[in-house]
Amino acid sequence: MEIVTGEVININNEYRTYQDYKAAVDSEMQKSAESFVRIGYLLKLARDTDILKDTMYGSVNEFAQAEYGLDKSQVSRFIRINDEYSEGGYSDQLKEQYRGYGYAKLALMLLLPVAVAEEISSSYSKSEIQAIKEEVYEEKKITDIEVLLEGQDRQQASMDSTLHKVIHQLGHDQPELYVRMLKARYEDYSGQAEDIGIASRIITEILAPCGEAIHNVRLQGIGRMMLSIKGADRDVVVVNMRSGEKESFSWQQMISAIDTLVVPEASPEHEKEWEILYGETFPAREEPKKPEPSPVMARTVQKKPSKVTKAKTEKKVDENAAEKKSGDRPEIAPDNGPYDTRTEEPEPTESHPESYETDKESDPDAGEEQLPGQMQLEKDFPEYCPDAEENTKNMEVAPVQPNYTEKHEELGYYITALKEIPIPETGECAYIGPAADRLAEYERTGITPEQIIEIDRLYSERCREIAELKKQIKVLQEAAGVEVSDGKETP
Fold this sequence. Notes:
By secondary structure, the chain is of the alpha+beta class. Helices cover 46% and strands 7% of the residues.
């Protein structure tokens, strides 16, 4: 057997150079994205026309499932891709601005708000787009009420410009970036600080070394904001991930926002400036770890810096958590397996050999002070009281929650953590199967959390559209002299 080493040889001599090969791959990727748009268009035709009338299929979903094995969620995705990324929203041609992305990227971008997707160029990798999507979905987990209760940062509340707030938060979240920006502005290029063209190029090199970048920050009381930089010759864009609002700012405004980070009394000690501005200790620098020498040295490929920076969020810590853990809650015996339901009997104390619960049950009124002249039902009106023994027989006892059974094991969707959990107050274990049953009901629908969020988004958009149409109809009716009362037109 002959072993071929060195360069890969193409027998047909189809690709003479890497450039030829890369161009061929790019062409196929382009066709892939365009084909998905065209598939969405063709499925729309089956949905909106009578093309299937002479077939056995009653809907586009039946047709796609039977002929191509596409379920309704896949059909819906193809159609939505065509809605968002085709020319005019209803054609077989991919929009010019999205050519060169590929299907994998477009599929991710479909889940993003339009204002966010518009800031993503084809140079962003799939993982970078995924990081942006994660930021959007993290912010969706926080309700409007929770955001309102946060209250704005004291310093940022006094800032008029959204850009100023975003730059202020970016400097806080990335202290090293703060130092680099101020050092470049007031030390390295201090003589050219007033030249906006030079200043914009310098800041672009710091914030977007790859030419473009997206920095995400979370403003307290407002939500996540996306700072998009696409070069020194284009305006800076800030997108509110909650509302989808987009604002553009010139580089003059961008430089002005950076200049507000300066603390004159501490300049040019930029770390001290940071500490005074934010009221915190400048974080210690971590020494980069040197890679251990390997006996076999392979060709080292330098990893490019990511064009996406995620927002830094601080987790709230319960100050009394440690105290509660050690004092308020009893110790729980170690887990002996998912099927072990044994509990230890509490040892009676010397002064109270009988449990407090027993005393309480035998005399429910114990400890209550009897008021003078207060009537007692059992003593004063015994004829109206049912026999205690008969009352016990007729008492409806709440059904006991069944324990983990073989039936649940067969269903397959239970995990060990959901089978039995300890109750802190008693140390006993209780089965929470109903919670898992409820979860299973959602699983059987076949709808992912992302799809539910998308459905909610589309529903909200339609509600807003209907409300706007109602306003327009009312204006037209008023202009035509039509009086509307209780939903009925009165000429």
